[in-house]
Amino acid sequence: MEMESLRDLFVEQLKDLYSAENQIIKALPKMIKAASSEELKSAFQEHLEQTKGQVERLDQIFEELDESPRGKKCKGMEGLIAEGKELMEEDAEEDVLDAGLIASAQHVEHYEIAGYGCVRTYAQLLGMDKAAKLLQQTLDEEKETDELLSGLAENINVQAEEEAA
Question: What angle do CA 61, 64, 65 make, to 5 degrees?
């Protein structure tokens, strides 16, 4: 696709996020299974459900744009998920693995926060108020998830350090 306008870039970036979200939906069940902390499992499960809603919002935006969400693979998310998979294959103590899972998840969240911040701004500039509102809702959710993970990390990281002592 040739990008000749901000709208073209907006659509390409939305496709990238759509691919990223669908990759996350496939990865989260594995992270839930790998986590030992019940709080972390619960946070991942909640985010899985939230992510499904985020895909529905993207579907609404694509429908409004009369565009298909298909046709692009998010290589950035693919790499982040591959790193998380490598971590899960390590022979690690439970709390250490949980600390690593949180770090991996926060890498994902920060990637999404950057992406959604950009497309939300594009939507605003393009006068697509409904899309901007939907994207802001997702951006807010991603920031909340990042804050939740930071809170969980405070305890889990200490437990991981205590295991080493």
Answer: 85
Query: Which residues are CB-contacts of 89 (< 8 A; sequence separation ≥ 6)?
Result: none
Query: Is residue 1 one of the residues assigned to a domain?
Result: no
Q: Distance of alpha carbon 133 from its chain centroid, rounded? A: 18
CB atoms within 10 A of CB 54: 26
- What is the CATH classification number for the domain harbouring 132? 1.20.1260.10
Domain span at residue 89 reads 6-164
Answer whether residue 38 is part of any domain: yes
Percent of the chain whose pLDDT exceeds 70: 98
Using CA atoms, how far apart are residues 52 and 132, in angstroms rounded to an integer?
19
Please give the average per-residue pLDDT across 76-86, as a whole number.
Answer: 96
CA distance 60 to 66: 10
- The fraction of the chain above a pLDDT of 90, given in percent, is 86
The rounded distance, in Å, linking the Cα atoms of 4 and 148 is: 39
The per-residue pLDDT for range 97-155, each reduced to its tens digit, is 999 999 999 999 999 999 999 999 999 999 999 999 999 999 999 999 999 999 999 88
> How far is residue 93's CA from residue 29's CA, in Å, rounded to a whole number?
20
